[in-house]
Amino acid sequence: MSSAPKTPNGGKDAKQPKATGPTGRERLREKLKKRGERKKRLKELKKLKEEKRAARAAAASAIAESAGQETERDRMDTPQGDTNKRRQRAIDALERDVIELSRLTAPTGEQAAEVERVRAEVQELKMEFYRHLGPWQRLQLARHPQRPYTDDYIQLLFENFSEIHGDRNFSDDSALITGMATFHDRPVMVIGSQKGRDIKQRLARNFGQAKPEGYRKALRAMKLAAKFSRPIMVFVDTPGAYPGVDAEERGQGEAIARNLLEMSRLPVPILVTITGEGGSGGALAVAVGDRIFMLENSVYSVISPEGCATIMWRDSTKAEVAAEAMKITAPDLLALKLIDAIVPEPEGGAHFNHEATAKTLDGYLVAALAELSRLSGKQIVDQRYEKFRRMGQFFS
User: Fold this and answer.
1) Using 50, 70 and 90 to split pLDDT, how confident is the model at 230?
2) Residues 278, 301 contacting (CB under 8 angstroms)
3) What is the mean pLDDT of the chain?
4) Could you identify which of 6, 179, 269, 291 might form a hypothetical disulfide with 163, taking C-beta atoms 3.0 to 4.6 angstroms apart as the criterion?
5) 142-391 CATH, one of 3.40.50.261, 3.90.226.10, 3.40.140.20, 3.20.10.10
């Protein structure tokens, strides 16, 4: 019998060669490749920084030039909001550049300091921009769809909210929210306008324009608050009362007049905050208060600038000029002593930070409520009467 051929290792299968890692040359090649990539990214970063520095200088120059050279005639001839849009686009572009600088590489040391410096410059430019907004620009912020509405303030400021529906006469009006809640462990009544975020909500809320049943519902809630000695917190953000035929048929004017009469003699503290638009009698119908606050970028007027321009010039495109003439902003109204205080907004407007806006407003409401709570019902009514009687006397 023939025997099987022997293998060199004594009949055992030959062992497979062990897998080896990358050689020293391969590791060096990989390291050089990564170093080259880092140098390339750093070069791109430096190039981008130079471009953005030039862009910042150009944007600042353009803003200063447009702010210094714009006259009233220019504003009348320029399409509404064009200047504001150009400035906002310049700031937005710089903010995007800061994000790009941060993402381009993980900045450390000198790079991080440079990115932080650029970010600080953009923040300073934004602060300068929003500090010098005109009436028309503030009106646009007051109408911003992401601005906090009554429902947001209810969630951020109050607890145990229980909504009240209907006027016990015709129907419920979703444009006005009313209900009981607790504010810093104290029972209060909350009343406020609600516009809605999307088109479906806006249609359901009638774009924040209340009908007679809405004002009667609000009055029913306020009388209930007076019965149980509960302070009333009002949030106003409406372009005005609904002007439709059905509203007029159900007594829109009478409902507003009745609210003015009854609110003037309710023996409980009434704190009113204009959070966005305070338009016409539709706003005043729930704004007869002991303390009237306005958010920094809100407006309060007897008519919209578009309506005023249509009446005065037969041209709604003159709305920007009308807004300046009407004195609708918070600083103007505080100077005229039509409101009691201006509530600062976060940088860029309340729509950027609902929580910060509510926190700031909370301090004003707490202080005013503590002050009014020391008064009797008769003293509250007498002070409210004197407050509104003094309005407008500087014109006589």
Assistant:
1) very high
2) yes
3) 82
4) 179
5) 3.90.226.10
pTM for this predicted structure: 0.70
In contact, 190 and 180? CB cutoff 8 Å = yes
Q: Which residues of 14-28 are buried (b: 16+ CB within 10 A; e: fewer)?
A: eeeeeeeeeeeeeee
As a whole number of angstroms, the distance between CA 200 and CA 35 comes to: 55
Contact 309, 322 (CB under 8 A): yes
3-state SS, residue 213: helix
For residue 3, pLDDT beyond 70: no
**Domain ranges across the chain:** 37-132, 142-391
Say which residue the tokens 């006005």 belong to: 176
CA dihedral defined by 116, 121, 122, 126, rounded to 10 degrees? Answer: 140
Q: What is the pLDDT of residue 73?
A: 42
Question: CA separation (Å) from 18 to 15, 21, 366?
Answer: 9, 10, 77
SS3 call for 164: strand
Which residue is listed with tokens 């981008």? 48
| Residue bearing the bigger pLDDT, 23 or 280 | 280
Q: Quickly state the pLDDT bin for 375 (edges 50, 70, 90).
A: very high
- Calculate mean pLDDT across residues 377-389: 94
Q: For 20-46, write each residue's pLDDT tens digit.
A: 556 777 777 777 787 777 777 767 767
Question: Could you count the other beta carbons within 10 Å of the beta carbon of residue 277?
Answer: 26
Q: How far is residue 156 from each of residues 193, 233, 291, 338, 359, measured CA to CA in Å?
A: 16, 14, 21, 27, 8
Q: The tokens of 282 are what?
A: 């539709």
Work out the average pLDDT over 164-181. Answer: 93
How crowded is the C-beta side of 237, counted as CA atoms within 13 Å?
28
Q: Where are the alpha helices (DSSP H) in the chain?
A: 24-69, 72-77, 82-104, 110-131, 135-142, 150-157, 199-204, 212-227, 245-249, 252-263, 280-284, 305-313, 319-326, 330-335, 354-373, 377-390
